[in-house]
Design a protein that fits this description.
The complex is a heterotrimer of chains A (424), B (324) and C (323). Chain B has 324 residues and is of the alpha/beta class. Chain B contains 12 helices and 14 strands. In chain B, strand 6, helix 7 (151-163) and strand 7 (168-173) form a beta-alpha-beta unit. Chain C has one domain (3-239, 253-304): Rossmann fold, CATH 3.40.50. Chain C has 12 helices and 5 strands. The chains are: A alpha+beta (424), B alpha/beta (324), C alpha/beta (323).
Chain lengths: 424, 324, 323
């Protein structure tokens, strides 16, 4: 019997997806669960598994076409079964035909949109390619390493070093420019040396970037948000992490971020308003605590989600984070990895950031922005000393919560960060 | 803490060690009656006598050879080569004999000998009297090569050199004997084979030694006004080379400049740069720059000579270049 | 001299000869590498020199050092082990043929750079003088070395400071392939000493007793505080400068003339003529020597080669990991 595979809904707000690549060709055998195709959504490129086993009888759509959610994209028949297109239900044929008919118009729209920017895109792509092929992408070893670690595409970064070499500060600037992190870019102090730049580079905004931009603009403009900053004593955290990581293999090492995921998930237990979502006139206090973690990707940002973080152990959280991050790096992120967060955290601690303000990930109630763990002057019993501190800033939706509650949450969080044995 | 000159620091080290151990003695040209051509051993002959403060004929090979023989046979000689430019006539005994006897005879021979010699240019002494061939001597395994840049380091390291059981080439700089610096009072030594951070900073790692240490400090002061914070790592010993503080610093700053008085080609900087590339490649945010003497024999004319030698401004410019 | 002393000298000379012949064979088999400088023909020189010394006196020589090594008492098997580069060699396999030594026997090597050990000899004597030990340094070198700067610097400094050195020049008539007539302004070598105001003597190097007696006198003289002295020992090497020397600089006839009047044969005749030993006694010594060398070869073959770690050992006294 012929089974139709439809464009899956891979995100709560997904309306259409772009089929970028057929992984299984026509007439290829396929098992249930095998990857059938790669689909690009607003957020990421996702591998889609086949719900049926058998043989891929037909691709109903071509690569690089945009398909509305729910529309058929492929037919899978049992082995040995002959497939006659005419046997497909009429509406499917219709819709595929319609889709085929629509394709040109969608493509046209795309083309015309592209057309107006065609010249600049070609130019931008050209120069990026040129830098890539002619000068082998000039980037310092440090910049290459940072890019590799953070999953940043160097061909999208412009270099300010001699000979347009990409250096560390260019990556730092690029990170600062990411809207999802909600950073108010702090201007870097000018060195006495002026940086010679020959020409501007115009880059077309990618799908991902556009999607992020749209959402962040909406969030920023429509949510009456406020922020609360709290400085946490990190001594105990650092000590505990050192103890836990002593002798541990690289893959098993626990990061400060892992601690935060656990701490936040436990602290939220007493603050259901912050583990909530708003829709219209209703506030939904979530039964689960899924902590979303913002990670940088090629051209934008993703939120990977640790589900039920309040019920998982610290090593489990750490392992899960590493596994998901690896999938993100390899471009094999799963739908499950990026959906369902109830509260998001964003960590810029690796960039010597004192503190920053993140933009809420709608429809969530709040987002926590974490700065660097650093040694600062502290006052203890009236005298000056040195201590390890980490600052975190909560951005919260005033329609759901208020200042006092937010402040009390931040205070409560201290219990878990400053007495980290509670997280074990 | 006392403030004394480089000359005084070296002189004190020699005096204290001669007092401490009767096996220590000095030999060299004009070290006795003249008191040393840089006045380092002034007063020594009267106090320690002609057996222990020996004026030699002009025979560098024999001076070093005899020092080797005396060291083999139970004494602790400190041979002075009037300048490092004269070391070439004793090259065989420095690098073929002193550096190798312990190894070739499988540990039977001990050579607790020190060869003291000043190098460097800038006094219009012309090409053959103004060289900084430190890198050549640092090339040979079996020799220990020390080159301090401050009076404290000079005193502490010379004492360690004299007490060492291995042959040490102790390179001074002929133009900075009057350089002043703080030196601890009382008995102290400084370990051979340890680099030192002379100035902490976070923007760039400036690796240097000997006379260039004080030049680097001046450069750092100038750069501070431009908002650039320089970390200066003083090698102090060329062989064995302690790269740990250099690498630690470089991992912090990601930028490096090396300043030396010798020529750039095949110099000390070449070694440091190679090691930084080997050990910290992924921390490199810019190519490493070397500040060194121009590739010319040093001329007599005063202005030309200064033009050839590395200056404070050259270090400042190199730092700016590397941070571009 | 006592009978036993004579026989001991004869034994040493024969042992050196057998050792050198065997070394040549091993070299040709490829078991000894690098340079091999044989002492064949010159056995009387080192034997006489070392026999004359008191235990505190020093001996230092150039690269043709196997003779001295045997004379000072380094076991033949230890020399062979060093030639084969084994850990049981006197320099642990790290020095080779040119760098035999034994500090405890006051034998300071075995040096490869021509003339470089002369200033070192000056230094050894300097230390003895400063420490007021009753020792003399005997520095042996070839006539070719009298042309290099080190020679002049060393003997000048020793004479200026009145140091207890006996400069012993083994004139074997060829510095590699060049005779003194072609290399020196003054080819009568003792004359060079005169330029430095030193007492200078010469002796027939083919006569071990003559060498021993002469050296003994010189040592006594120097020990009495009369400053350094110079001794030219006339000798001849029967084989080439080193293995692989095509010997284009001399005729076979010339060599044969010296071989016929060689030191061992000379001494043999003397011992028999003076009734110090009989034929059987001498043969016994000769066979003993051969057996000792053969044992030595076996020992060397069975000895271990140095490990990889040995590469980095003894570069410095103080820290094995320096550098």
């Amino acid at each position: 019997m012929a089974n139709t595979v439809e464009m899956p809904k891979l995100g709560f707000d997904m309306t259409e997806g772009k089929l970028v690549k057929w992984v299984k060709g026509e007439n290829e055998k396929i098992e249930k669960g095998d990857v059938l195709a790669e689909i690009e959504t607003d957020k990421a490129t996702v591998e889609v598994e086949s719900p049926f086993g058998g043989v891929v009888a037909k691709h109903l759509v071509s690569e690089n076409s945009f398909i509305p959610v729910g529309s058929p994209i492929a037919v899978i028949t049992a082995e040995g079964e002959t497939f006659d297109q005419n046997t497909l239900p009429a509406n499917i044929i219709e819709s595929t035909d319609a889709m085929a008919a629509n394709q040109p118009s969608i493509k046209e729209k795309e083309t015309s949109q592209v057309g107006s920017q065609a010249i600049s895109e070609v130019e931008a792509k050209g120069s990026a390619d040129e830098r890539k092929t002619n000068s082998m992408l000039k980037a310092s070893p440090l910049a290459k390493r940072i890019a590799r670690e953070k999953g940043i595409d160097l061909t999208t970064i412009s270099g300010s070093g001699p000979g347009e070499r990409i250096v560390k500060r260019d990556l730092e600037k690029a990170q600062l420019g990411q809207p999802a992190a909600g950073l108010q870019p702090k201007p870097k102090p000018d060195t006495a040396v002026s940086i010679p730049r020959a020409k501007d580079e115009v880059i077309e905004i990618s799908r991902l970037r556009a999607a992020i931009g749209k959402r962040m603009l909406e969030s920023h403009q429509s949510i009456p948000y406020f922020t609360v900053t709290h400085s946490y004593n990190a001594e105990a955290l650092i000590t505990l992490r050192k103890e836990l990581n002593e002798g541990a293999a690289e893959e098993a090492k626990i990061s400060i971020n892992d601690f935060f995921i656990r701490a936040v998930s436990l602290a939220l237990a007493d603050f259901p308003n912050l583990n909530a979502s708003i829709s219209g006139s209703q506030i939904t206090r979530h039964g689960v605590t899924n902590i979303g973690v913002a990670v940088a990707v090629e051209n934008g940002l993703l939120t990977i989600v640790v589900k039920d973080a309040n019920q998982k152990t610290l090593p489990e959280v750490s392992r899960e984070m590493k596994e998901m991050a690896a999938r993100v790096r390899d471009g094999k992120v799963r739908n499950d990895d990026i959906e369902g967060s109830t509260f998001t955290i964003s960590n810029l601690g690796m960039f010597e950031v004192e503190d920053f303000t993140a933009i809420i990930n709608p429809p969530e109630a709040a987002i926590l922005a974490i700065g660097s763990t650093m040694q600062v002057p502290v006052v203890i019993n009236g005298s000056l000393s040195v201590g390890w501190r980490v600052k975190a800033t909560l951005t919260a939706d005033h329609r759901i919560t208020d200042g006092a509650e937010a402040a009390r949450f931040m205070q409560h969080l201290a219990l878990f960060l400053e007495q980290p044995w509670r997280l074990l | 803490m006392a403030i004394i000159t480089m000359r005084e620091a070296i002189s004190q080290a020699l005096w204290e060690e001669m007092e401490r151990d009767p096996k220590v003695f000095i030999l060299g040209e004009e070290v006795g009656v003249w008191g040393g051509t840089y006045a380092v051993t002034k007063g020594f002959l009267d106090h320690f006598g002609p057996e222990r403060v020996r004026d030699t004929p002009i025979s560098e090979a024999a001076i070093i050879g005899a020092a080797i023989g005396a060291a083999l046979n139970g004494l602790r000689p400190i041979a002075e080569l009037m300048t490092i430019n004269f070391a070439f006539v004793a090259m065989d005994h420095i690098v073929n004999e002193a550096a190798k006897l312990h190894y070739m005879f499988n540990g039977q021979f001990r050579l607790p000998l020190v060869i003291r010699t000043p190098g460097g240019g800038g006094r219009q002494l012309a090409a053959t009297h103004s060289q900084t061939p430190d890198a050549i001597f640092a090339h040979f395994p079996g020799l220990i090569v020390v080159a301090p840049g401050t009076p404290e380091d000079a005193k502490g390291l010379l004492k360690s050199a004299i007490r060492s059981e291995d042959p040490v080439l102790f390179i001074e700089n002929a133009t900075v004997y009057q350089q002043r610096g703080e030196v601890p009072e009382g008995e102290f030594t400084i370990p051979i084979g340890k680099s030192k951070v002379q100035r902490e900073g976070k923007d760039v790692t400036l690796v240097t030694y000997s006379k260039m240490v004080s030049y680097s400090l001046q450069a750092a002061t100038q750069l501070e006004k431009e908002g650039i914070d320089v970390e200066i790592v003083d090698l102090r010993t060329l062989r064995p080379l302690d790269m740990d503080p250099v690498i630690t610093s470089f991992k912090k700053t990601n930028h490096a400049v090396i300043a030396e008085e010798g020529w750039k080609s095949y110099g000390v900087g070449a070694e440091i740069a190679a090691r930084i590339y080997e050990e910290a490649f992924d921390y490199l945010d810019a190519p490493i720059k070397r500040v060194a003497q121009k590739e010319v024999p040093l001329p007599y004319n005063r202005r030309l000579e200064q033009l050839a030698l590395p200056q404070v401004d050259d270090i400042v410019n190199a730092v700016m270049e590397v941070l571009k | 001299m006592e009978k036993s002393e004579h026989l001991e000298l004869y034994r040493q000379m024969v042992l050196i000869r057998r050792l050198e012949e065997t070394a040549a064979e091993l070299y040709q088999k490829g078991e000894i590498g690098g340079f091999l400088h044989l002492y064949i023909g010159q056995e009387a020189v080192s034997t006489g020199v070392v026999a004359a010394r008191q235990p505190q006196d020093h001996v230092i020589t150039a690269y043709r050092d196997h003779g001295v090594a045997i004379n000072v008492g380094i076991p033949c098997k230890v020399v062979l082990a060093e030639l084969l580069g084994k850990t049981t060699g006197c320099s642990g396999g790290k020095g080779g043929s040119m760098h035999l030594a034994s500090v405890e026997k006051h034998f300071w090597g075995g040096h490869a750079i021509v003339g470089a050990h002369l200033p070192i000899a000056t230094g050894l004597a300097l230390a003895d003088q400063m420490e007021k030990r009753n020792a003399v340094t005997m520095c042996m070198f070839g006539e070719g070395a009298t042309n290099i700067g080190f020679f002049h610097e060393a003997i000048n400094m020793a004479k200026t400071w009145g140091l207890p050195v006996l400069w012993i020049c083994e004139n074997n008539r060829y510095g590699m392939g060049t005779s003194p007539e072609r290399a020196s302004a003054v080819s009568e070598i003792i004359q060079k000493a005169c330029g430095y105001g030193m007492r200078a003597y010469d002796v027939d190097g083919m006569d071990v007793i003559a060498v021993k007696n002469m050296v003994s006198e010189r040592l006594e003289d120097i020990r009495a505080g009369n400053g350094p002295q110079f001794l030219e020992v006339c000798t001849y090497r029967f084989r080439g400068h080193s293995m692989g020397d095509p010997e284009r600089y001399r005729t076979k006839e010339e060599v044969q003339r010296f071989v016929d009047k060689g030191p061992i044969d000379n001494y043999r005749k003397y011992l028999l003529a003076e009734g110090i030993s009989d034929e059987a006694g001498l043969i016994a010594i000769e066979e003993q020597a051969l057996a000792e060398v053969e044992d030595g070869v076996k020992f060397a073959h069975e000895s271990p080669a140095p490990s990889d770690e040995a590469l980095f050992e003894n570069i410095y006294v103080e820290d094995a990991e320096r550098g």
